[in-house]
Design brief:
alpha+beta, 189 residues, DNA polymerase, domain 1, 2 domains, 5-stranded mixed sheet, 33% helix
Length: 189
Protein backbone atom coordinates (compact mmCIF):
# COMPACT_ATOMS: atom_id res chain seq x y z
CA UNK A 1 0.00 0.00 0.00
CA UNK A 2 1.32 3.43 -0.90
CA UNK A 3 2.39 5.79 1.85
CA UNK A 4 0.87 9.20 2.30
CA UNK A 5 3.01 12.31 2.41
CA UNK A 6 3.28 14.28 5.63
CA UNK A 7 0.16 16.18 6.54
CA UNK A 8 0.20 19.96 6.69
CA UNK A 9 1.66 21.27 9.90
CA UNK A 10 4.04 18.36 10.47
CA UNK A 11 7.62 19.52 10.65
CA UNK A 12 10.49 17.96 8.77
CA UNK A 13 12.73 16.52 11.48
CA UNK A 14 15.77 17.39 9.35
CA UNK A 15 14.88 21.09 9.39
CA UNK A 16 15.90 21.61 13.00
CA UNK A 17 18.40 24.30 12.21
CA UNK A 18 21.01 21.98 10.70
CA UNK A 19 22.15 22.59 7.15
CA UNK A 20 21.39 19.74 4.80
CA UNK A 21 20.99 19.52 1.04
CA UNK A 22 17.20 19.49 0.99
CA UNK A 23 16.66 22.46 3.28
CA UNK A 24 19.36 24.58 1.64
CA UNK A 25 18.00 23.75 -1.84
CA UNK A 26 14.53 24.88 -0.81
CA UNK A 27 15.90 28.06 0.72
CA UNK A 28 17.81 28.67 -2.53
CA UNK A 29 14.51 28.32 -4.39
CA UNK A 30 14.66 25.06 -6.27
CA UNK A 31 13.77 21.38 -5.98
CA UNK A 32 16.05 18.70 -7.41
CA UNK A 33 14.39 15.47 -8.49
CA UNK A 34 15.49 12.48 -10.49
CA UNK A 35 12.47 11.39 -12.51
CA UNK A 36 12.76 8.12 -14.42
CA UNK A 37 16.54 8.41 -14.28
CA UNK A 38 16.66 12.01 -15.53
CA UNK A 39 17.79 14.85 -13.25
CA UNK A 40 15.33 17.73 -12.99
CA UNK A 41 15.95 21.08 -11.33
CA UNK A 42 12.65 22.87 -10.75
CA UNK A 43 12.60 26.51 -9.71
CA UNK A 44 10.13 27.28 -6.95
CA UNK A 45 7.74 30.00 -8.07
CA UNK A 46 8.40 29.33 -11.77
CA UNK A 47 8.35 25.58 -12.47
CA UNK A 48 6.67 24.51 -9.27
CA UNK A 49 4.73 26.22 -6.49
CA UNK A 50 5.19 25.26 -2.84
CA UNK A 51 1.59 24.03 -2.83
CA UNK A 52 1.98 21.77 -5.91
CA UNK A 53 1.54 18.08 -5.34
CA UNK A 54 3.95 15.65 -6.90
CA UNK A 55 1.08 14.36 -9.07
CA UNK A 56 0.52 17.87 -10.43
CA UNK A 57 4.23 18.38 -11.09
CA UNK A 58 4.60 15.00 -12.82
CA UNK A 59 1.58 15.54 -15.05
CA UNK A 60 1.46 19.29 -15.67
CA UNK A 61 5.08 20.44 -15.37
CA UNK A 62 6.92 17.37 -16.64
CA UNK A 63 4.23 16.15 -19.05
CA UNK A 64 4.25 12.56 -17.81
CA UNK A 65 0.54 11.82 -17.98
CA UNK A 66 0.72 8.11 -17.16
CA UNK A 67 0.33 8.96 -13.48
CA UNK A 68 -3.39 9.47 -12.90
CA UNK A 69 -5.28 11.57 -10.38
CA UNK A 70 -8.68 10.18 -9.53
CA UNK A 71 -9.91 10.95 -6.01
CA UNK A 72 -7.20 13.55 -5.25
CA UNK A 73 -7.52 12.59 -1.57
CA UNK A 74 -5.25 9.54 -1.28
CA UNK A 75 -8.06 7.00 -1.16
CA UNK A 76 -7.88 5.22 -4.52
CA UNK A 77 -4.18 4.60 -5.28
CA UNK A 78 -4.37 5.71 -8.93
CA UNK A 79 -1.62 8.30 -8.41
CA UNK A 80 0.92 5.84 -6.98
CA UNK A 81 4.53 6.40 -8.04
CA UNK A 82 7.77 5.14 -6.53
CA UNK A 83 9.91 7.48 -4.46
CA UNK A 84 13.30 5.95 -3.72
CA UNK A 85 11.72 2.60 -4.56
CA UNK A 86 8.75 2.89 -2.20
CA UNK A 87 5.16 3.42 -3.36
CA UNK A 88 3.71 6.80 -2.43
CA UNK A 89 0.48 8.61 -3.18
CA UNK A 90 1.64 11.49 -5.36
CA UNK A 91 -1.64 13.40 -4.88
CA UNK A 92 -0.88 13.60 -1.13
CA UNK A 93 2.80 14.48 -1.40
CA UNK A 94 4.05 18.01 -2.00
CA UNK A 95 6.76 18.34 -4.64
CA UNK A 96 8.94 20.34 -2.24
CA UNK A 97 8.96 17.30 0.09
CA UNK A 98 10.65 15.29 -2.67
CA UNK A 99 13.84 17.33 -3.01
CA UNK A 100 16.79 15.02 -3.64
CA UNK A 101 14.55 12.01 -4.22
CA UNK A 102 14.35 9.55 -7.10
CA UNK A 103 10.86 9.27 -8.58
CA UNK A 104 9.76 6.48 -10.92
CA UNK A 105 6.51 6.77 -12.87
CA UNK A 106 4.83 4.24 -15.12
CA UNK A 107 6.73 5.76 -18.08
CA UNK A 108 10.00 4.88 -16.34
CA UNK A 109 9.35 1.13 -16.41
CA UNK A 110 9.80 0.72 -20.15
CA UNK A 111 13.29 -0.40 -21.20
CA UNK A 112 14.86 2.81 -22.58
CA UNK A 113 17.13 0.93 -25.00
CA UNK A 114 14.66 -1.52 -26.51
CA UNK A 115 11.34 0.20 -25.83
CA UNK A 116 10.14 -3.10 -24.43
CA UNK A 117 7.51 -3.01 -21.71
CA UNK A 118 8.45 -4.07 -18.20
CA UNK A 119 7.41 -7.69 -17.49
CA UNK A 120 4.73 -6.46 -15.07
CA UNK A 121 3.22 -4.23 -17.75
CA UNK A 122 3.30 -7.11 -20.24
CA UNK A 123 1.66 -9.48 -17.76
CA UNK A 124 -1.18 -7.01 -17.22
CA UNK A 125 -1.74 -6.97 -20.99
CA UNK A 126 -1.46 -10.75 -21.29
CA UNK A 127 -4.01 -11.31 -18.51
CA UNK A 128 -6.33 -8.42 -19.41
CA UNK A 129 -5.79 -7.03 -15.93
CA UNK A 130 -7.35 -3.69 -16.84
CA UNK A 131 -10.36 -2.27 -18.64
CA UNK A 132 -10.44 1.50 -18.80
CA UNK A 133 -6.81 1.57 -17.61
CA UNK A 134 -7.16 4.63 -15.41
CA UNK A 135 -6.07 2.94 -12.18
CA UNK A 136 -3.66 0.49 -13.84
CA UNK A 137 -0.47 2.60 -13.59
CA UNK A 138 -0.85 2.91 -9.82
CA UNK A 139 -1.49 -0.81 -9.40
CA UNK A 140 1.54 -1.63 -11.56
CA UNK A 141 3.78 0.72 -9.56
CA UNK A 142 2.72 -0.87 -6.25
CA UNK A 143 3.30 -4.30 -7.78
CA UNK A 144 6.79 -3.23 -8.89
CA UNK A 145 7.67 -2.01 -5.39
CA UNK A 146 6.44 -5.27 -3.87
CA UNK A 147 8.35 -7.50 -6.30
CA UNK A 148 11.52 -5.44 -5.93
CA UNK A 149 11.31 -5.98 -2.17
CA UNK A 150 10.10 -9.61 -2.30
CA UNK A 151 10.42 -11.41 -5.66
CA UNK A 152 8.27 -14.35 -4.48
CA UNK A 153 5.54 -12.94 -2.23
CA UNK A 154 2.60 -15.00 -1.05
CA UNK A 155 -0.82 -14.24 -2.48
CA UNK A 156 -1.73 -12.64 0.87
CA UNK A 157 1.25 -10.26 0.56
CA UNK A 158 0.22 -9.36 -3.01
CA UNK A 159 -3.32 -8.66 -1.85
CA UNK A 160 -2.03 -6.55 1.05
CA UNK A 161 0.31 -4.54 -1.20
CA UNK A 162 -2.54 -3.79 -3.60
CA UNK A 163 -5.19 -3.21 -0.93
CA UNK A 164 -4.99 0.57 -1.26
CA UNK A 165 -6.08 0.51 -4.90
CA UNK A 166 -9.67 1.02 -5.89
CA UNK A 167 -10.89 -0.02 -9.33
CA UNK A 168 -14.50 -0.02 -10.49
CA UNK A 169 -13.94 -1.80 -13.80
CA UNK A 170 -12.17 -5.09 -13.29
CA UNK A 171 -12.31 -8.22 -11.27
CA UNK A 172 -9.20 -8.12 -9.17
CA UNK A 173 -8.52 -11.79 -9.87
CA UNK A 174 -7.14 -10.69 -13.29
CA UNK A 175 -4.63 -8.50 -11.49
CA UNK A 176 -3.68 -11.33 -9.13
CA UNK A 177 -3.22 -13.68 -12.09
CA UNK A 178 -0.97 -11.15 -13.82
CA UNK A 179 1.18 -10.72 -10.71
CA UNK A 180 1.39 -14.51 -10.18
CA UNK A 181 2.51 -14.87 -13.82
CA UNK A 182 5.33 -12.32 -13.33
CA UNK A 183 6.44 -14.17 -10.17
CA UNK A 184 6.29 -17.55 -11.93
CA UNK A 185 8.33 -16.32 -14.92
CA UNK A 186 10.97 -14.68 -12.71
CA UNK A 187 11.36 -17.91 -10.72
CA UNK A 188 11.86 -19.86 -13.97
CA UNK A 189 14.85 -17.70 -14.96
Amino acid sequence: MAERGRKSGQQDKRANGKKNGSVSNLIAGYVNLTVNGESRKLMIGKDVQTSDTLAHTIRETLGLTGTKVSCDHGACGACTVLMDGKPILSCMTLTVECDGKSITTIEGLEDPKTGRLHPIQQAFIDHTAFQCGFCTPGIIMSTKALLDKDPSPSEDKVEEALSGHYCRCISHYHVLEAVKDVIRKSEER
